[in-house]
Amino acid sequence: MNTPCCFFEDDFLENFHPLTLTRPVYDLRVGILTLGEKWIQVLNAVHQNPKGILRNHLKGVFDEFTLSDTHQKACWINPRFIPHKKIAEQVTDLAENEGIVSDGQLISALLTNETHQKWSQTGIDLEDISTRELNSNDLVILKNSWELFQINGEQIRRDIDLLKNNFVRSEQDFPHAIFTNPNEIYIEQGAIIEPGAMLLAETGPIFIGKNAKIMANSIVRGPSAICEKSVVKMGAKIYEDTTVGPVCKVGGEIANTIFHSYSNKAHDGYVGNSVFGQWCNLGADTNTSNLKNNYSTVKVVDWKTQKQFDTGQQFIGTIMGDHSKTGINSMMNTGTLCGVCCNLFSDKYPPKFVPSFSWVSGSDIVPYHFEKAVEAMERMMQRRSVQLTSSYHNMMKALFQSTSF
């Protein structure tokens, strides 16, 4: 597909906060790839990088979509809809100013430059295009943040199918590691699997990315993904449906959890049914509760209204925004939402809703001074040779100024 892809967000955006406070929806990771990368792969638009219509505070941090040629068209895509072959066929078959919808929600549209410019400035107006309906039974549609970990195992399987040409290593390269069902273990160039590590793929495939390291005596059960340059520490236990994103370091016990990238859970402790953003750090023996003692459904706090509602789900752990951290021996309650750039340290449960830029000791919450928060960000990012740019600083400043305590 040669038409450039333009990702957009809709009214469900806030359902993915705090993860989407610092990223567009297309940059959410589920499976191995981000939502934007999945669409690029499925549409065979591999020469493109994900770009989209950005909220003001994200400009400069992520790539904003533009059309340079007045005769060029744009393929608008809603990344909440998980792509597959059938959707791709419909998208590539679109005529000018025609779109695909499901229950009134736009999935994709092929826009002329004029319509693209109008929608970019004033928002989507389905009156401007003709539409065809796609049966919702054929779709996986993300509506809430916890659905990311719920579909993670299946997405690992699908992403492996998209990436199959990249796998160059096999069990013969690691004679002192233990592989079960090795045909379902996919290893990229530069990965290291130390003696005694166990990769168990009977229940699903295992992906090991470029230059990742699986240390001795750790156990990984599929479906799981250990992405590029990440480290699984000695004796770690990685259960099914887990993704460790690029440049992360993990240890202890992890089940059905997604780490986006540059985040650490390097020591013992348990996390399950959770999603962590970038640059998070969980102190030694941090534990997340993912199931209530009475086995009832989990309530979470709506990010906008700050009122609790029943999710209808039995398993939800912690959803944590970028740059948030826990101290040693921290405990996270079932259904905790923690914003961007928070410090949680206590031998008690913190609140289930933690606003961004909070300094939390038990039930006491005070604002995290912005200058101190930026100093900590900069130090952490320098450790991974990543620069804190002026655009990134401005994004965080905008979030700080919009946070109410």
Can you put this structure into words, describing what you see?
The chain is 17% helix and 26% strand. By secondary structure, the chain is α/β, with parallel strands linked by helices. It contains seven helices and 32 strands. The chain folds into two domains: 5-143, Spore Coat Polysaccharide Biosynthesis Protein SpsA, Chain A; 148-402, Hexapeptide repeat proteins (UDP N-Acetylglucosamine Acyltransferase, domain 1), CATH 2.160.10. The N and C termini lie far apart (47 Å). The protein is globular. This is Glucose-1-phosphate thymidylyltransferase. Pfam families: NTP_transf_4.
Topology record:
Elements lengths: L4 E3 L27 H8 L31 E4 L7 H8 L5 E5 L2 E7 L1 H10 L7 E4 L13 H4 L1 H12 L14 E3 L4 E3 L4 E2 L4 E3 L5 E3 L4 E2 L4 E3 L2 E3 L4 E2 L4 E2 L3 E3 L4 E2 L2 E9 L2 E2 L4 E9 L2 E2 L4 E2 L10 E3 L6 E3 L7 E3 L4 E2 L4 E2 L3 E3 L4 E2 L8 E2 L3 E4 L2 E4 L2 H13 L7 H13 L3
Parallel strand pairs: 1-2, 3-5, 6-9, 7-10, 8-11, 9-12, 10-13, 11-14, 12-15, 13-16, 14-17, 15-18, 16-18, 17-19, 18-20, 20-25, 21-26, 22-27, 25-28, 26-29, 28-30, 29-31
Antiparallel strand pairs: 2-4, 3-4, 23-24, 31-32
